[in-house]
Amino acid sequence: MTSKGDCGNHHHRPRMFIRRLFGAIVTFLLIVLIVILIVWAILRPSKPKFTLQDATVYAFNVSSPNSLTSNFQVTIVSRDPDDRVGIYYDKLDVYATYRDQQITLRTSIPPSYQGHKDTDVWSPFIYGNDVPVSPYNSAALSQDQAAGAVMLIIKIDGRVRFKVGAFISAKYRLHARCPAYIQFGSRTNGVIVGENAIKYQLERSCHVTI
Fold first, then answer.
1. Mean pLDDT, range 129-155, rounded to an integer
2. Where's it mainly located (predicted)?
3. Please, what is the average pLDDT of the chain?
């Protein structure tokens, strides 16, 4: 009888060991997750700050009643305001809109890492050739051009990750909206660059959401 009882205990021991090992692993992972969440809450990262520094206009022409050709170079300054959190910019696309309608192609900014309190400067070209414009926006654009000023929005869409020590977060969507008030009718508000381009100093803060 004793021999049979011992045999039964031998069968149960591996199962008990596996259960204890599994429980220990789950407990350890939960503790690590809680520590990460506490650190993340304490060091909650701040959103990067974007500024539209200037815009150089090479072309902005209505090529037909309902199409637009435009070519810009914009200077965008990005700053990490946090002194303990770094930022990975995995993907950033820059483009221009007029009255909520996209008027240029998207230009990609190469992926980069931004350290604590660091500042990055990007100067992408954004352009669009014979881009169809809605009849309503075409009429509004003609009125704006006649008045000598056009309000554009330079948009930045992308994905970022935050680095806290050795911990790197999941990817977050980033959206920045930068107003660009361009006065085409007055060259006194810009600096002539080359033969046909005008550079405008804007220094406009961008609205950033994550």
1. 90
2. membrane
3. 87
Residue 139: both structure tokens together: 């009429």
Exposed/middle/buried for 152, CB within 10 Å: 0-12, 13-18, 19+? buried
pLDDT of residue 19: 80
Measured CA to CA, the distance from residue 155 to residue 133 in angstroms comes to 18
What are the strands, taking DSSP E only, across the chain? Answer: 49-64, 67-79, 86-98, 101-102, 107-109, 112-114, 119-122, 125-132, 150-164, 167-168, 172-182, 191-193, 197-205, 207-209
CB 28 within 8 A of CB 21: no
Q: What pLDDT score was predicted for residue 194?
A: 78
pLDDT at position 102: 97
Query: What's the pTM value of the predicted model, to 2 decimals?
Result: 0.79
Residue 136's φ and ψ, nearest 5 degrees, are -65, -45
What residues form DSSP beta bridges with 71?
A: 59, 127
